[in-house]
Structure formats: C-alpha cells, structure tokens
Amino acid sequence: MTKYIFTTGGVVSSIGKGIASASIGMLLEARGLRVAMMKMDPYINVDPGTMNPYEHGEVFVTDDGAETDLDLGHYERFTSSKLSQKSNATTGAVYNTVIQKERRGEYLGKTVQVIPHITDEIKSRIRSLTAEEEPVDVAIIEIGGTVGDIESLPFLEALRQFRLEVGPEHCCCVHVTLVPYIEASGELKTKPTQHSVRALRDIGLQPDIIICRTGKNRLAKEQRQKIALFCNVGNDAIINAEDIFPLYAIPLNFKRQGLDDITLRILGVTAPEGDLTEWTDMVARMKAAETTVHIAAVGKYVGHDDAYKSINEAFVHAGIHNDCNVRLSWVDSEEVEKASSADDLLRECDAILVGPGFGARGIEGKIAAARYARENNVPYFGICLGMQIAVLELARHKAGLDEASSTEFAPDTPHPVISLLSEQRGVKDMGGTMRLGQYRCDLREETRAHAAYGDTVIYERHRHRYEFNNEYLDTLTQAGMVVSGTHSKGDHELVEIIELTDHPWFCAVQFHPEFKSKPLRPQPLFRDFVGAALQHRKQRD
Ligand code: GLN
Asked: Is the Cβ atom of 357 under 6 angstroms away from ligand 1?
C-alpha cells in the first residue's frame, strides 16, 4: 500500500518546499523505503521549457526528456527516486489533457468543469506516479505556489478528495511556512503561520506536520506550543527549519528533530533505523574544506543563481570530492566582449566555464574567453553552448576559418561549423521540441573523457537544437580538436565531447552533465575540471 505525503507552502513563495520534500525523501530512503517524488506547479505554461531561466530559474531535464521545474533537481540530488515525464505537472498540462479529451468527445456531452474534471485529472496524475511495476512505499507530492493563491486551489481541492479516497491514515500533510522575526519587538511571529493554516483548513486540509522557516533564529518552547495549539498539530510535529549551511545539512537537522519518525508514525509505517554516516561524513568534509578555487563562469544570465542551479550544485559536489570550496563568479560575456582584452576580466580565475545558453547575445565574449583559456593554459569546461563556442573558437583561430559561426547566430555564415540538427528542420513549436533527454555516448579510449568516466559507454542528458557539423570534422581535427565522445545516429556520428591534448584541461560537451551530479557521486567531468583548477591554482601560487 503506497503512502502519500503532500507538501504545501505558506505565507511566502520560495520558502524551501522543494528542499524540505527532498530531505524527507532522503530520510525515508535511508530507512529502506522506496520513494517517488512529484511536483505540481500552478502556472499555465504546459512545462517550464519555454520560460526565461533568468526569471523562473533553471529548466531541469529528466532521462526521458521532460523539461521540468528546478525542484526536481533537488529531488534527484537528495534521493534516488526515478524522475520522468510523470514527475512534474502544471495547470497548463492538466488543462491541456482535459481540453483534448473534451475535443475528442470523451466527456459524452457533459459540461466540463474544474470539479470534477480538472481535479480528476490531477488525481489521476498522482495515481499514475505510483502505477509503476516496482511498488512505491511513499509518494511525495509537492504543490508549488503559496496556500491562498487562486491558482493552486484546484490542486489543493484534488488533494482533499484524494486523501478521502485513499484513506486519511495513508496520508501526511506537511506545511512549510515562514515564522518571521520582527526586529522592533525582538520576536518570532507565529500569526502568519496561523493564518496560512487557517486558509488550508478552509479548503479542507489539516496539516499533520508544520516546518517553520525561522531565518537565523530558532523557535522557543512557547512559540512551538502556540503554533501547535492554534494550528491543531502535535507539539513534536512542529519542526524548526532555521537557515542551515550547507544545504546538504538540512536533512540532518530534520533528523535531529525526529522528522522521519514523526512522518512514519503519522503514516502508520514501521521501518528500521537508517544509516546516515556517509551523508554526515560528506557534510563534515564539505565544512572542513579550506582551499577555494575560483571559477569564472562566462555567461549571459549573470546575477541569478537559480538560472544555473544544477551547475552550481555540481560544482559543490566536485568541491567536496576535491576537498575545496568552489567559488563560481559570473562574468558577463558582454563585458568580456567590450573589454580590450579578456585578460583584464579573467586574470584572477583558476578555470573558465562557458555554460548553456541560447541566442546571439554575448557570443563574441564567450569566444574570447575560450580563446583566453586555450592560449593561457587555463582549464576550460564547455557545456552545451560552451562546446559550440569552443568549436567556433578553434575553427576561427586554429583552423583559419575566420568567419566560422553557428547558424543559430549567423544563418548565412560561410562556415557553419555548428548547424541545426537534421531532425530540427521544419520544427515550428518552441515547447518540448529540442533534442531532449538521455542519449548514449561512446567514449574514445585514452582521452580525458575516458579517464574521467572510466568507461567506454556513458549516458548523459541533452537540451539543444544545434550540433557540430561533420563537414568540418577533418579540418578541425587537423587543427587539434580531439573528438572523444560520439553518439551514433546510424548514418552519422554526432560529436558529443571534444577536447584538446596540448592543454592542461580543455574539455567541452554537447550534453548537460550537471543534471546527473549528486553530492555522494560527483559528476566525473566536473570533478576532474575542479581538480585541474586546483592544480592550476597551485602552479600560479
Ligand atoms: N543554443 C544551443 C542549441 O540550441 C545550445 C543550447 C544549450 O546550451 N542548452 O544547440
């Protein structure tokens, strides 16, 4: 019998529901339970694929090619739950399904309404999450947005119905809320939480556990009792979630407060005690790191950390492995473009990253950064667009193709070294139409990539429309480019990894290795790149 945990958020958005849900998942997995995770998002976009990462944060890609909310990245980093197209549902996706059914006449002349048709579709998506062959012990469903929003009402109503249908004894509602500190009175205030829980109860949902975000402070006993009393929740089920560093210490803080035991008690599940030694050691190792390497990330979306969430986290994981901190500073590629020499902006860094991106803006600055890395023996890592940039740089400055470009930025370039993937021709819709998800990549032996992965076959996730143009393969390999990873498309080999041999560490990939990095299992290329940055730093000192 699958048990269900629903996570809702109160008072403000960005309260940390995603991390809280992921942490609960991690603690339950440690106790031997099989966990499935899902996020419901109340916005009308069918998926976040077309949303601006600068406003909404990164688009996380699953193995099966779903473009999803960045919270799914937290789920994958904290748990081993298998995420797929089923793991993220938006209002847009739900309505889309219902409207298509209506057009096909499947509602047999009925008036199609929010209740029951939209709520039925939401419930069926929750059910399909657990309809796998391997049984799921606990499904954790996070509802995006804040309780009280108009948009999230159908989701909360669906949860209310779902809870009655499967039986309240199989469900646990976790409400994550803000308990703000008011400077003037010098106290933490519980009233916003009381109001938020009241709003939830109006909809017919009673929280079983309240996770209180208290900033730098901690709840005093009286405040805990007050929340418990007014919100009708047991004293021990009021969990203090003060700001914790590092992020990966959050589940350990929950564990200290017995959150896993309380959750299991509410769900009526018995499970053996978990072993968190490896995780605890990882957090301790992270805290103990003294050296810091400085990586310059040359990009367009400067100033918004969430736009590259998984990349940031992959660097944290690589840092843990190398016993160092990684300071990623975003360098605006347009500034590099304007600067008289890239040297002025990049001199201080130990390594250079050019990450994913779309559109022509800032491209010349990124090419200048790649050139700087190559000519000055600074470790370079290119991800997706960052690989395409490395190819343009080599084509222009090593192969003598001065005007080489990508057809994404210069459709009429005389040397389209990067061009549209053949299957992308004729694609008009923007949503969900890129080359998405996991593909096989064969590695060439005795290359940097092969050494990093220690394998000849790997699987990584993709999100792009353009590719290396094989017509230039000979020219570029003669200029020193080594193709170390390819994907076979039957009639041709798609270039997936390139590297340079006469350089301390220069490697660039067409895929997104950041999506598969985990704190206990750093992604091999990130790991080695940070190792190379550390090496470069030592040489400079
Ligand atoms: N704009 C490039 C493409 O579509 C790179 C995409 C990316 O970096 N994710 O191929």
From this structure: yes
- CA separation for the pair 92, 89 (Å, rounded): 8
- 320-343 pLDDT, tens digit per residue, is 999 999 999 989 998 888 877 888
Task: Indicate which residue's Cα is closest to atom 7 of ligand 1.
Answer: 356
What band does 100 get if pLDDT is binned at 50, 70 and 90?
very high
The β-bridge partners of 438 are: 461
pLDDT reported for residue 93: 96
Which one of 308, 465, 467, 515 would you pick to mutate in the ligand 1 pocket, going by the greatest count of ligand atoms within 8 A of its CB?
Answer: 465
Q: What is the mean pLDDT of residues 183-199?
A: 94
Do residues 306 and 373 lie in contact, with contact meaning Cβ atoms separated by under 8 Å? no
CATH number reported for the structural domain that contains residue 128 in this entry: 3.40.50.300
Q: What are phi and psi of 18, to 5 degrees?
A: -65, -50
Closest CA to 391 of 300, 475, 489: 475
Query: With a 6 A CB cut-off, is 409 part of the ligand 1 pocket?
Result: no
Q: pLDDT tens digit string along 262-278?
A: 999 999 999 999 999 99
Distance (Å) from CA 482 to ligand 1 centroid:
21
Residues 490 and 351 in one domain: yes
Helix (H) or strand (E) holding 482: strand 482-488
Instruction: Specify whether 192 is located in the same domain as 295.
Output: no
Q: Residue of the nearest CA to atom 3 in ligand 1? A: 464
Q: Is the CB of 386 under 6 A from ligand 1?
A: no
pLDDT at 134: 75
Residue 146 CB neighbours (<10 A): 22
pLDDT for the residue numbered 302: 58
From CA 375, how far away is CA 369, in angstroms rounded? 10
Exposed, middle or buried, 471 (CB in 10 Å: 0-12/13-18/19+)? Answer: exposed
Statement: residue 304 has pLDDT above 90: no
* Cα angle: 309, vertex 219, 177; to 5 degrees: 45
Domain span at 502? 290-540
Phi, psi of 145 (to 5 degrees): 80, -170
CA of 375 to the centre of ligand 1 (A): 25
Cis amide leading into 116 (omega within 30): yes
* Beta strand 138-143 pairing with 88-90: unpaired
Nearest to 18 by CA among 139, 141, 122, 172: 141
Side chain identity at residue 307, one-letter code: A
Query: Which atom of ligand 1 has the smallest separation from the CA of 359?
Result: 1
347 shares a domain with 317: yes
The total domain count for the chain is 2
Whole-angstrom Cα distance, residue 138 to residue 75? 14
Bond from prior residue into 524 cis (ω within 30 degrees of 0): no
Do residues 326 and 318 touch, judged by C-beta distance below 8 A? yes
CATH number at residue 477: 3.40.50.880
Q: Do residues 440 and 459 touch, judged by C-beta distance below 8 A?
A: yes
Confidence of residue 21 (pLDDT cuts 50, 70, 90): very high
Q: Is 125 in the pocket of ligand 1 (CB under 6 A)?
A: no
Give the up-direction half-sphere exposure of residue 413: CA atoms within 13 A in the CB hemisphere. Answer: 21
pLDDT at 303: 65
